[in-house]
Amino acid sequence: MGRAAGEVIAIYPGSFDPFTNGHLDLIERSTHLFDKLIVAVLRNEEKRPLFSVEERQAMLREVLAGYPNVEVDAFDGLLVDFAARKGASVILRGIRAISDYEYELQMALMNRRLHPEIETVFLLASEAYSFISSRLVKEVAALGGNVSGLVPAVVEQRLKRKFQGA
Ligand code: PNS
User: Fold this and answer.
1) Residue 55: what pLDDT?
2) N or C: which end of the chain has fewer CB within 10 A?
3) What domain range includes position 99?
4) Is any ligand 1 atom within 6 A of the Cβ of residue 63?
């Protein structure tokens, strides 16, 4: 799937296990920066995800249905190869705190080495969401804590179903 001339396609890759309001904020802010944004879920069973790739894609599609230039997809193998196949010239990543920086720097430099034409673009997380992580959301939900406001409603319901059978 290529791109039309002059069109800037960005890939927003991640585990999204689960998708949070921090991810959503980043997507909302970037929709007007790119012609098309592909939110791409990593297929990696080694990470022992809480939600299957299909469940994560279904939640993303539901939440992102109102954004005409946002697509949901999944990938395995190298991110840069997937990006190239999709005609993307940008990899989008969010940075919350300085602690994210080292990991992101390593990935961005490795990806640049593998595929110099693809640029990684970083957006800073909004203050209101900078403390949210999928890992903590899962932990809080698993222990019966309230995650409303941290994740979209559909994700909150699915977390409840997973942990409380509600
Ligand atoms: O949400 P995450 O778990 O921080 O996302 C990590 C992700 C999916 C961006 C990263 O693990 C990835 O790109 N994996 C694909 C394999 C790959 O390309 N590895 C080399 C990256 S330097």
Assistant:
1) 97
2) C
3) 9-130
4) no
